[in-house]
Each structure stands twice: as C-alpha cells, then as structure tokens.
Amino acid sequence: MSMNVGSSGGSDAPMMEMNMTPLIDVLLVLIILLIMTLPIQNHSVSLNMPTISPPLVVEPPVVVTIDVDFDGAIYWNKEVVPDRDALETKLKKVAEEPKQPEVHLHPDKMVSYKFVAAVLASAQRLGVTNIGVVGNEQFIEN
Predict the structure, then answer these.
(1) What CA–CA distances, in Å, run from 78 to 1, 42, 69, 81?
(2) Domains in the chain, CATH or no CATH each
(3) Using the 8-state DSSP alphabet, how is residue 47 labeled?
(4) Burial 61-73 (b: 16+ CB within 10 A, else e)
C-alpha cells in the first residue's frame, strides 16, 4: 500500500483530488441512524366489521302516472281526467300525503308544450315535490 504525499517535482501546485473517505463515513452513519429511527412496520389492517342486523324491508314506491295526449287530453293512471279542476283535486290529494308518491309525467311527442307546462305549474302550485318527466327517449331525433 502506498501513500501519495506530494509530487516529486517539488512544485507547490494544489492537490486536485478530493478525499472521499470522511464523506462516505458520514453518509454511512446517517444511513444507519435513519434505519434505526424508522418505525416498525405492522402488516395488519384494523377493520370495524358491522354487527348483524335484520334486513331492511324496502317498500316499492307508489307511482302515479299522468299522461298528456297529443291533443292535450290528460290521463291519471290511464283514466281520463275531464278538466283541469279534477286534475288539481287529484294533485292536491297527492300533495297532502305525508309521503308523497312519485308522479311520472309522460307527455306525447306531438303535444303542445303549453299543456305540459300547465300540468307542471298546477303540480308546483299545489305543493307536489316528487314529480318527474319520463319517456324522454321519444324526443331524440335520429
């Protein structure tokens, strides 16, 4: 093993190599300290499992279907409604129930919008909140 003390030429030139040994020693000590301070890894998962309960009984919703024909005729569950007052009486009964049934409004493709808007306005004014327009696929033009 040899050691390079200096150049043999006697020149006062600075040494161009960096001494890596102290740097490597410091890095090894830091790695060892890092490994020692890491927490112990647990390979388990805590689960809170639900307790067994009786199955929920789901009642199917009550559905009221309002059809609006191409000429503006209104049908309540396939029965003809003679006038707007009769429709509003039926809508008022629906609005007064504690659990309102689902009201499905099904307009014909050829019906004028004013007839559908009149039914929607009556339902809103009387307090029917569970209403939706169904059968929209007939309005898609190919």
Answers:
(1) 106, 65, 11, 9
(2) 63-137 (3.30.420)
(3) -
(4) eeebebbbeeeee
